[in-house]
């Protein structure tokens, strides 16, 4: 049977760009096809394709359709406004060393980017007695979207590691979830504060669900604690590496695939 043609990523245009906190750039993109996406998909990831500096829209569009594939990275839908066809994407500004961060820093109104997806929402059904949320800056969008979607009587903890006090942002979390902002000033040093705090939590009683994402070192330690030691079922534990110190995303994805095969 012939292989079906690959779906070409869809084009969206930048409308606004702003540093919402010291190290986070919010880029709002618009397109008519965004109106047709499901509602309530904040927290879902997608593949973002970005043009090279000075690349024309025509060349970028041709590359999206026919290759070579433009630079592609994974990001999260922070907000979606289906009625006007807009999404907000929150980028960690980690300088010009990666194509996605560099694009977010230089893009402006009417610039174009490509979109494939979205993937699934990370926590769709909420049934836990206790929620454990932990995120570094790259995973604040999924953590915030999850906290905002939780039932208002939810209980639990959220450890959010940010680069500077000025990176704290307003999140409408349930009152019963104790949100703690932890300052981790050097992103290229593995985080440890949320690991220490989660390790010190009392033994869980009743169902637990987690939304934990961030740098790969933190993820390994927390998967070990939550799934292996405390026995939270894998299906209730969203624990995902979003990037790895010293690796570009393609390299990190390969490492994740090898690790997933090894633990299957
Ligand atoms: C499901 C999923 C959802 C994600 N959602 C978001 C999101 O909404 N917002 C977001 O900012 N990131 C998000 N990420 C993480 C993002 O895909 C990676 O950080 C990606 O590597 C950024 O691409 P880049 O082109 O900027 O850097 P790359 O070219 O991939 O890497 C260049 C260098 O920068 C380093 N680096 C990469 N990310 C960071 C970082 N966050 N801080 C410091 N150094 C870094 C790398 O280790 C490497 O040395 C998500 C990842 C996944 C898997």
TrEMBL record:
**Any one Gene Ontology molecular-function term assigned to this protein's record:** oxidoreductase activity
Q: Gene3D superfamilies of this UniProt entry? A: Nucleotide-binding domain of ferredoxin-NADP reductase (FNR) module, Translation factors
Query: Cross-referenced Pfam families, in alphabetical order?
Result: FAD_binding_9 (PF08021), SIP (PF04954)
Q: This protein is called what?
A: Vibriobactin utilization protein ViuB
PROSITE patterns xrefs: FAD_FR
Domain of life here? Answer: Bacteria
Q: Look up the signal peptide feature and give its range.
A: none
Similarity comment: family membership:
Belongs to the SIP oxidoreductase family.
Cross-referenced InterPro entries: FAD-bd_FR_type, FNR_nucleotide-bd, Riboflavin_synthase-like_b-brl, SIP_FAD-bd, SIP_fam, SIP_rossman_dom
């Amino acid at each position: 049977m012939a292989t079906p043609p690959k779906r070409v990523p869809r084009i969206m245009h930048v409308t606004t760009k702003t540093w919402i906190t010291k190290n986070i750039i919010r880029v709002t993109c618009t397109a008519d096809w965004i109106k047709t996406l499901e509602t309530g998909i904040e927290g879902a990831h997608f593949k973002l394709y970005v043009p090279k500096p000075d690349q024309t829209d025509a060349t970028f569009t041709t590359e999206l359709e026919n290759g070579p594939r433009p630079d592609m990275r994974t990001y999260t839908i922070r907000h979606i406004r289906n009625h006007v066809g807009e999404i907000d994407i929150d980028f960690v500004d980690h300088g010009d060393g990666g194509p996605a961060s560099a694009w977010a820093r230089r893009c402006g109104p009417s610039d174009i980017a490509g979109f494939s997806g979205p993937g699934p929402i990370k926590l769709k059904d909420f049934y836990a007695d206790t929620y454990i949320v932990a995120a570094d800056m790259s995973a604040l969008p999924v953590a915030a979207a999850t906290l905002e979607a939780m039932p208002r009587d939810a209980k639990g903890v959220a450890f959010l590691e940010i680069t500077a006090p000025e990176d704290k942002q307003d999140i409408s979390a349930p009152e019963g979830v104790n949100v703690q902002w932890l300052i981790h000033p050097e992103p290229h040093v593995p985080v440890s504060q949320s690991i220490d705090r989660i390790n010190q939590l009392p033994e869980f009683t009743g169902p637990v669900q987690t939304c934990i994402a961030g740098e790969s070192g933190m993820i390994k330690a927390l998967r070990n604690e939550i799934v292996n030691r405390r026995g939270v079922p894998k299906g209730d534990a969203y624990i995902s590496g979003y990037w790895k110190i010293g690796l570009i995303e393609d390299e990190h994805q390969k490492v994740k695939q090898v690790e997933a095969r090894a633990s299957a």
